[in-house]
What we know:
- The chain has an eight-stranded mixed barrel with strand order 1-2-4-5-6-7-8-9, surrounded by five helices.
- The protein contains twelve helices and ten strands.
- By secondary structure, the chain is an alpha/beta fold.
- The protein has helices at residues 2-14, 19-35, 73-82, 86-106, 120-123, 128-139, 153-171, 188-193, 203-207, 214-228, 241-249, 266-279; strands spanning 39-48, 53-65, 69-71, 113-117, 146-151, 175-181, 198-201, 232-236, 254-256, 264-265.
- Helix 4 runs parallel beside helix 6.
- The chain is 51% helix and 21% strand.
- It binds ligand C2E and calcium ion (CA) (3 copies).
Amino acid sequence: xxxxxxxxxxVFDQYLNDIFTERMYIEKQLYLALExxxxxLFYQPQVDLALNKVTGLEALLRWNSPELGYVSPLKFIKVAxxxxxxxxxxxxxxxxxxxxxxxxxxxxxxxxTISVNISMLQLLQNDFNELVLNTLESSGLxxxxxxxxITESIFVESYGHVSxxxxxxxxxxxxxxxxxxxxxxxxxxxxxxxxISTLKIDKSFIDSIPAGTNKATLVEQIIMIGxxxxxxxxxxxxxxxxxxxxxxxxxxxxxxxxxFSKPKAGxxxxxxxxxxxxxxxx
Length: 282
Ligand code: C2E
Ligand code: CA
Ligand code: CA
Ligand code: CA
């Protein structure tokens, strides 16, 4: 079987420059992957700066293809969206993430929340809210532990439809995070009209810290706006201590990034949480 895999890889390699063929190939492999259980969820800690504790995890999809090796979600999510495979794949992610968090709760990590990335296409499905509520029900997880991460592009496409759905989810105490905030079509009016609980500052802004730069000034403004609007502000892609210090000084609530931990497989994150419980976050 390994030999056959190698041959196919060579075939793939030949066409690597042909984007269309590559996409077709990935699409085909994605279908097989879902059937053959090749996906895995990794989890990255979100650290509350005031508590100096992990309060949540973001679930991040990983695909280890025997054919293609490791494929970045930046590449395959787009293909999954275009081919609508994101619908069953997204449902799988949601279910897996909620089940894992419920497991962690039972291991004694009762306070943790789980953040799950949601594609626009998922949110546009008529039965999306039903899917979310059913998934919570069958995993045994209480709704306020679940946060859905969405991006602003969703609103540009169909604001009214999406906002009523999100409002309904909020009435169930499910949290909504605005991901990659500051990139794309940012409009501050979204913030006042939508039930957003969390603002997630995009990594590109965090990269520009230290203080004194224009983008770092924007980070200060975003944090201020979030606080004014009673939202939790989280910074993503924090890699260095000086970024952490700056964000803490500005009153940012939470941090996610390699500085604390890369995303890890379920059993590894469980170990990390147990270790940090003993030693404090290191
Ligand atoms: P995202 O939602 O903005 O996720 C954050 C990305 O930044 C993740 O990349 C994470 O591994 C990476 N990251 C976190 N901290 C650091 C850091 O300190 N330094 C650096 N260099 N990177 C950091 P990843 O896991 O490759 O995911 C890429 C994107 O793929 C995600 O961006 C998200 O848009 C999408 N994605 C991942 N999993 C899912 C999923 O289950 N569903 C959907 N719809 N999209 C997903
Ligand atoms: Ca995200
Ligand atoms: Ca993000
Ligand atoms: Ca991003």
